Amino acid sequence: MIRVKNADGTRRLKVRTRLVVLAGLAALLTPLLTTWSAGPVGAAPTAGQWTLRKGETVNVSSDINACNVDYSFLIVSNGDTPNVGTNFGHNCSGDIVALVFSYTNTSGQTETVKLRLFDQTCSRTYDSDGSGDANHATALHKAVSINDAGGGCPFATSTSQPPLGQGNFNATVSFTHH
User: Fold this and answer.
1) Domains of the chain
2) Rounded Cα–Cα distance for residues 167 and 63 (Å)
3) What is the tens place of the pLDDT at every residue in 57-70?
């Protein structure tokens, strides 16, 4: 506080109100901000993982292009693992299997989702957040590319991150709220 002179010549104490108000607000809001965050629709807490709020739908547009038999799944934190699609190993010719898939969160609570590529030929699992048998994923915002283990499985347990759009499984996710 400082002493200031009023227009009529009297003196009064002046409190630095801006600092006091800001400090008070910070003290009140800090616990709320550090323990709760709604996040935007489809917010990604980790690259390759997304938040799916109750009533929200995740839409996956993807393709699989591989000689190995590959299956793609949506992994939901509530234990659901719906199959997004497979190529059955018929893509050595360069043909791409295009897949479109949607999943709605009806659990009544917020869930976390990620994508999984299961390479059946090599019995290996690779997730969009880099987890699984090895990091075979590249994720940026709502785009993901995941490699399988390769023909003859040479990359089964080593890192093999493809450039976006150039993996054996490439996907883009979007979100709609009902």
Assistant:
1) 2-35 (no CATH), 49-177 (2.60.40)
2) 9
3) 999 999 998 889 99
